[in-house]
Amino acid sequence: MKETKLMTLGEYNANCSVMILCEEEAELFRQKECCFGYYIVKGELIIGDSKYSTGNCLWFTGGNGLPAKATENTTLIYFETQKPLSGPVMELKVTSESEVAWNRPFVPGCCCSKYFISEAEYGARFQVGAYTKGVDTPWHTHSMAHTFYVLEGHLEFWVADEHYLLGPGEFMTVPKETLNKHQGIEGEEYVKYLFAADGKFDFLVDGKPFKRDFPSK
Fold first, then answer.
1. What is the rounded CA–CA span in Å between residue 80 and residue 123?
2. C-alpha distances in angstroms, 74 versus 31, 62, 71, 115, 146?
3. Which residue of 15, 16, 36, 44 has the fewest C-beta atoms within 10 A of its own C-beta?
4. Which residue from 153, 152, 154, 204 is spatially nearest to 174, judged by alpha carbons?
C-alpha cells in the first residue's frame, strides 16, 4: 500500500470518512468492532476472487478485516454504525445502487432516496439521495450529525451564517442541532449525493418535527 488518504467527513461525524486508495494490497480501514460499510464512488475493489466497482455498497456485519486490492485512486466512502459485528467470520452484503429503487418518483420537486441499510436495525442512515429540480429545504436542525458527499450536480448549502456551493467530490458535515438548509442550483435537473447520518433521522423546524409533501407522480 503506497498511500491511503483518509479524510474524516468533518470532526462532528467521526463515523464517516473518505478513503482514496492507491493500487497494491491494503487492509480496509475500520475503527471499531461494529457493523460497517463502503460505497465505491469510483474505481474497483478486489476482495478474493470477487471484483466490486463504482456504485456498489459493501456492507459488513461480521469479520475482522480483510485484504483488498484497489485500482489506482479508487475513492470510497466509509461508514460505521454502533451495532456490534456478529463475530469473526466475514459476512458481506453487496448492493448495487442501480438495483435499488428510489423511494419516491424521480420527478421535479422530489427528495428521493436509495437506502443501503435499515434504519430500524442499525439506528443510522447510509444512502444515496437526490434533490430534483425545484426542491429547497426550510431552515431546520437534526438531532444527529449528518454528511453529504456530492456525486453529481451541485448542492447549495447554508450552515448557520456560512454559505457553500459543493460540486462532485466535495462534502459537508453538519453537527447535530445546527441550523442549516440546502438545495440544488438553478439550471440543473437534480443533484445526487451520498448521505450518512450517525443516528435515527429526524427533521425539525423551529424545534418541531416537520414533514413535507412531495409529488406522487
1. 11
2. 20, 24, 6, 22, 23
3. 44
4. 204
**Cell numbers linked to 161:** 451564517
Residue 140 backbone dihedrals phi, psi, to 5 degrees:
-155, 170
* Distances in whole angstroms, Cα of residue 123 to Cα of each of 35, 118, 133: 11, 8, 30
Tens of pLDDT, residue by residue over 140-191, are 999 888 889 999 999 999 988 889 999 998 888 888 889 999 999 999 999 9
Cell numbers found for residue 142 = 437534526
Q: What confidence tens digit (pLDDT) does each residue in 5-53 have? A: 334 444 444 466 666 665 455 556 555 688 888 899 998 888 878 899 9
Closest CA to 28 of 62, 69, 86: 69
Whether 75 and 41 have beta carbons less than 8 Å apart is answered as yes
User: pTM for this structure?
Assistant: 0.87
d(CA 171, CA 130): 14
